[in-house]
Write a structure and sequence with these properties.
By secondary structure, the protein is α/β, with parallel strands linked by helices. It has two domains: 5-219, Rossmann fold (3-Layer(aba) Sandwich), CATH 3.40.50.300; 224-282, YebC, transcriptional regulation domain (Alpha-Beta Plaits, 2-Layer Sandwich). Helices cover 34% and strands 26% of the residues. The protein has helices at residues 43-50, 72-76, 94-104, 111-120, 134-147, 164-179, 191-195, 234-240, 263-273, 285-292, 297-304, and strands at residues 5-14, 17-27, 32-36, 58-63, 79-82, 152-156, 183-188, 200-205, 208-214, 224-228, 245-250, 253-258, 279-281. A six-stranded mixed β-sheet has the order 5-6-7-3-8-9, with helices on both faces. A four-stranded antiparallel β-sheet has the order 11-12-10-13, with no helix packed on it. Helix 3 packs across helix 5.
Length: 307
């Protein structure tokens, strides 16, 4: 089966800055593919190459099995794109902007579906774009994208500016279109957001893919960090070591990490030990890069500022 998106050995430079360094990426038909990395890692550059906005300096790339520069109008009718910073026509109302965006994609959305999405995202379509917050501008682009069914959704930091409730509703819409057979490339720097909906994940760092696989394959990425304000007995430490990783005791406090499936065993053991409290924290993408790729997030962001 031909992949919806395929990039092999993709390279792109801007002057002396190497934005994409032999990047590989593949999105299968009907899958939600999470595209993760810190800001500036090359995610948006990759997407602009896929959309035919940039030409690569090397490597191969196809969209629906074709070059992004071969009959781009036909290819773009089969996809919906939402960037992380939406610029719209300030004098139009939100509803007018939604209708125009749908028309530019060469289709007509059912009125009932458009109205359902307006209600889901709690948007007032009668207000002028100039009065909208960043979050409301994102809602306009998301409603226009989801209102008209397509084969592929390319979403680049699409929840930027949305509150947690709206982000959850966005995830539900991604799940809906995926259940109908569409493919989704979801670019984000938020690990938890992608975890909720992705079938597979690719992680990019400095323009190069460093890991890819299903959440099961990458379960080490989802370990929860625990901290308890006490030391444990030697016997309890031995038992904890069967369910946890990286156990450290410093100044009377014990920290460790555990896979999601080990949570019941860990909590039962801590309850048996009579610990006075426990703090649990899911991993952030910054922690992930520190722990698994030896990357300092500050250095990553500094690298991003050069792009």
């Amino acid at each position: 089966m031909t992949p919806m998106i395929r990039a092999a050995g993709l390279r792109k430079s801007f002057g002396s800055v190497l934005a994409l360094d032999e990047l590989d990426l593949e999105v299968a038909e009907g899958e939600v593919h999470g595209f993760l990395g810190p800001n500036g890692a090359g995610k948006s550059t990759t997407i602009r190459v896929l959309l035919g906005l940039y030409r690569p300096g090397g490597g191969d790339v196809t969209l629906f099995g074709q070059s992004p520069w071969a009959r781009p109008a036909d290819l773009h009718r089969r996809l919906a794109y939402v960037p992380g910073d939406v610029n719209l026509w300030p004098s139009l109302t939100g509803g007018e902007a939604i209708d125009l965006l749908i028309q530019l994609r060469g289709g007509t959305a059912p009125a009932s579906e458009r109205e359902r999405l307006v209600e889901v995202f709690e948007l007032d379509p009668t207000k002028r774009i100039r009065t909208y917050s960043k979050g409301n501008r994102q809602k306009v682009a998301l409603i226009a994208a989801f209102a008209l069914p397509v084969d592929l959704y390319i979403l680049d930091e699409p929840t930027s500016g949305l509150d947690p409730l709206m982000a959850q509703r966005f995830q539900a819409e991604v799940a809906r279109v995926a259940s109908q057979g569409a493919s989704v490339l979801l670019s984000s720097h938020i690990l938890a957001e992608v975890e909720e909906v992705a079938d597979r994940i690719s992680i990019i760092r400095k323009g190069r893919r460093v890991e890819t696989g299903t959440l099961g394959d990458l379960r080490h990425l989802t370990r929860t960090e625990y901290s308890i304000p006490t030391a444990l007995s030697p016997d309890m430490l031995v038992r904890l070591a069967k369910a946890a990783h990286h156990i450290v005791e410093i100044e009377g406090r014990t920290t460790f990490a555990a896979e999601p499936e080990q949570t019941p065993a860990v909590l039962a053991l801590l309850a048996e030990a009579g610990v006075p409290g426990v703090t649990a924290e899911p991993p952030s993408l910054e922690d992930l890069f520190m722990r698994h790729y030896g990357a300092d997030p500050a250095q990553e962001l500094d690298h991003a500022s050069q792009r």
